Amino acid sequence: MAIEKELLDHLLAGRDPNEVFAKDGLLDDLKKALSERILNAELDEHLGDERTDGSANRRNGHSRKSVLAGTSKMTLSIPRDRAGTFDPKLIAKYQRRFSDFDDKII
Fold first, then answer.
1. So what's the pLDDT on residue 56?
2. What are the φ/ψ torsions at residue 59 (nearest 5 degrees)?
3. What is the mean pLDDT of the chain?
4. Nearest to 76 by CA among 44, 43, 12, 29
5. Where are the domains of the chain?
6. Does pLDDT of 98 surpass 60?
7. 77: burial class by Cβ within 10 Å (0-12, 13-18, 19+)?
8. How far is 92 from 74, CA to CA, in rounded Å?
9. What is the SS3 string spanning 44-98?
10. CB neighbours (10 Å) of residue 91?
11. Helices 26-51 and 5-12 meet at what angle, rounded to 10?
12. From CA 2, how far away is CA 23, in angstroms rounded?
């Protein structure tokens, strides 16, 4: 699956090309956005599985978590559920290093 040229043009618009791969650049922004999107999808799946059991569990906000991803530090918004039964697979509870980000996403 290739990324559309228009999307890349939109992401790169107004950015200094030298800062795209720098710390807190576009690549770090994409890592954070992808991670949070995957975590929300995991919670959606978790809550969907519990609904079939008749449980009334639902979303209950987010918590902040700082992780080291390669050379940068990211602060992620981790979704929570009301019953506290959600255990993320992408970044497990108490995990602080996310060095294999590229392997997990691909």
1. 79
2. -60, 150
3. 85
4. 29
5. 21-105
6. yes
7. middle
8. 15
9. HHHHHHHHCCCCCCCEEEEEEEEEEECCEEEEEEEEEECCCCCCCCCCCCCCCEC
10. 22
11. 120
12. 25
